[in-house]
Structures are given as C-alpha cells and as structure tokens.
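Task: complex structure prediction.
Instruction: return structure tokens for all chains below.
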Amino acid sequence: MKFAFSEISIPKRGSLAVALYADKTFSPTAKLVDKKTKGALSRALETSRFTGKKGDFLEIVAPNGLEVSRVVLFGLGETGKLSMTDMETLGGSLVKRLNASGARSVTVILDELNVEDFKTNEAAAAVAGGAMLGSYRFRKYKTDFDEAAEPTLTRMTVSCKGSATARKAFADIEALNEGVFMTRDLVSEPANELYPESFAARCLELSDMGVHVEILDEAKMQRLGMGALLGVGQGSRRDSRLVVMQWNGATARKAGRKPLAFVGKGVCFDTGGISLKPGPGMEEMKWDMGGAGTVTGLMKALAGRKAKVNAVGVIGLVENMPDGNAQRPGDIVKSMSGQTIEILNTDAEGRLVLADALWYTQDRFKPEFMIDLATLTGAIIITLGHENAGLFSNNDELSEQLFAAGKAVGEGVWRLPMSDAYAKQTKSPIADLQNIGTGGRGAGSIVAAEFLQKFVNDTPWAHLDIAGMAWSKADKPITPKGGTGYGVRLLDKFIRDNYEGK
Ligand code: BES
Ligand code: MN
Ligand code: ZN
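Output:
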C-alpha cells in the first residue's frame, strides 16, 4: 500500500472517509459532505444504528452531488478520550472494511481534533501507520490466490492541517513498521525454511542498513564455553548460531556510553527434545524463535529510522530436536558463566539458550541494561493470556519505563514478583543449578525468570516472557493473525522516550 498526506480538501476520485463524533455530531468535513450530497449522510444516519461512537462505521455508496465513489463515516466518539492507539486502530479497521468493499483508494479526512495529548497531524500519521500494520499479509507460500478475496486497497491519503508534519512523522513510523514486518515474517516462517543458519543469513541482510552483524558458529561458541546453548542444539541436524547485531547511531557526545542490549530466544523449532512435547499443536513451536525475531526486527527499526542510540542485539539460535545425539534428562552441562546445570527436562531449553546469550552479552558489552525476550513458558499464557507479556526484572526504573512504553503503544507488560524463595527452586543437589523448579507446575514463569537472573551478573535487567504474545490466532485491526511482531513497537517507544535525545 502507498501512503500520502495532504491538506484538507474533498477528493474527486476513490473513497472518502470522514469523521462523526459522539451523539451523531458531524465533523466539519462531514457537515460539508452532507450539504453537498443534499443530506445523504443525515438520511443514512437516520436509517442505521450508527451513533458516531469509536469503532462505528457506515458506508454510503455513490452519493449524488460528489464525484467520489463512496463515503465512509467513521465514529471517533468523544474526541477528548482518543489515544494514539485509537487512531492506529482506526487506520487498520478502515483498511479491512475498504478491502471488503472493493475500494482501491481512500482519502481520510481528519479535521482538527483539539486533543490535549497529541496534535491532529500526529494522529494523521498514526492512522496511516495503523493502516500499514493492518494491511500486512504473509503470503509467500500461497500460490492459489482467490482473486475475489484479494485486498483491493492500494492507496491511502490522509488529509489534515499541517500535513507536512504528518508526512515527516510517518517516515519514522514506516521505518518502525518495516521492523515489525521483519519480525512477523521471521515468526511466520516454517522451521524447514527458517533454521539457525538461514535465520542468521536474514540478520546479515541488515548490514546494508548499517547494522554491524557477526555470526558465531559452533566452534566459536565451543571456545567461549557456551555448553548450555550448545547442549540444546546438539540433537539437531542444523548447526546452532549466535548472532550479534550492533547499531551505533549515538551522537558523538554520547558515543562513549554503554550500549543498550537486547537478547532473544531463538529456538527455531521446539519439539521438547527427548522430553518430547505432545503431537497436537506442536506446529506452533515454529514460532519459538519469537524473542529473537523481535530483537532482529527492533534492530531493523532502529537502523531504518536512524535512531540516535547505540544498541546491540544478541540472539541465540538453535533447534531443539530428539535424536541419537540429543541431550538427555539428567545430563549436566557447563555454561559460559562457569555455573553447571543439571538438565531435568529437555523441554525447558529456552532458559539454557538465554543463559549463555545473556552472560556473553554482559561480559562483552557491559551494557547499560539488558532486556531479553523469549517465548519461555506456557505458564505465562495461563497467567496473563494473550493481553500482556510477563515482565520480570531486578530494576524498578527499567520496569516502570517498560510498563509506560507498553501502555502507550498498546503492547502491554505486567510485572510479576521475583524473590530468593523462588530462586531456591533452581538449586540442584548435584550441580549448581537445575533447569526446572522443584515446585512442580507452580510459578513456572517466575522460576524460569529466576533461572535467567543467575546469568545477568549485576547488570540491570528485564525479561519479557512473550509466549502469549508472539502469535495471534485472531485477526485484529493492526495485527492480522499469525506472527504479531509484538515487542518491536514497545521497545522502540521505550528507547525513544528514555534513551534518545538525552
Ligand atoms: N517454548 C516453550 C514455551 C511455550 C509454550 C511457548 C507454549 C509458547 C507456547 C518452552 O520451551 C517450554 O517448553 N517450556 C516448558 C517449561 C517446562 C518444561 C518447565 C513449559 O512451559 O511447559
Ligand atoms: Mn521447550
Ligand atoms: Zn521453547
């Protein structure tokens, strides 16, 4: 889809979308359109349930008095209550409706909203941004297109006062969304196509944008002592990889500061290993690399919009398979940190991958903080469903910043407790640690987080368990079903608000 911005004027072609506010109040442009069509909007309103509340739509096809092919009324409700995410949702919902109707182009007119929290031209950029997110499709493997069901909408123009500012704001949003799309693409790929080596090759493509990419192979990881990560991958025909991506965009004044670090779980397929998972639903474990996908998409977004920060992304890429050479329950491995781990369940593999990736990251980069993302536990879905990611941290400030950023972009996080009582559960009688807790199924997500904390040293750290967020079975306005790209917008906002410009 192509996006454009213009000053407010009624177009001569395509579809026209204009706003209604609460209680059937016309926006200035809607009023003008009603006049030009000799009351067509008023008459349409009388015969429908549309009241102008947020999320309402009403279509009027081929109205007399205008040259456009269709007028879409969209409800904004009480404008004082609007948020930027509402504007994105509007964009995404419009795309969906217009595709259903067969429209090819649309002009969305946003009259001055007079909202305190944001300017109307920022809202215009958000409408386009949401439309872009909502129009994403993963269809590279589809050859049997049903032409009648294909999206028709190819062009959206958003009209507002001060449209040059909207156009400028959209350039950054577009770069961010390209990052989200990369994450969605990676998450949706099947595991026969996306395995550690091919994933690493995708990362390498970011070099063109100025990201410095290094790929560590198994021999290199062996020399570094990454026995925990390598143990997970040893049952797979595919070699494991660790990818390090660096974006150095900080201004000269800040260039010497510690980098921000993001670490991702990249289990390209999780069968559970010898502790094999049940068959039904196992195909979902192709997206067990969601954390790594988010870190990679974030690096793309930062580079795309030339963010003024130094950031490093580290992802541990493995495939967890049962095989003659696979790790066994009871095996003891040595992590790069020196701590030994008794593997009691080969399906608790994500934490083993992160153990070495986290230790390596703090050891090499001495970052300002580390944030890891992982589809780590099924238990977090029991706790939070698909509405929030679990947040675990040793740092209150970091937690608050992440919470605020999540709220602002509609990618929620909810903090769960950590304490020594949980940490104790990770002690093994014959090694330093064991990879599952002694408490059975109780507090599974917290115990997993405690395990990770053993590998962060003194670094300020936050862990996001995104098992409930990386994939969506439901179509939503700005997140079509499939890989969601969760976390890219959250972390971009978090970086923007707290680490750029300072
Ligand atoms: N990748 C899974 C967690 C998961 C489950 C993600 C469902 C998304 C949807 C993880 O590796 C795993 O298997 N965790 C186990 C841990 C247990 C063995 C302690 C789990 O959650 O059951
Ligand atoms: Mn597992
Ligand atoms: Zn897993």
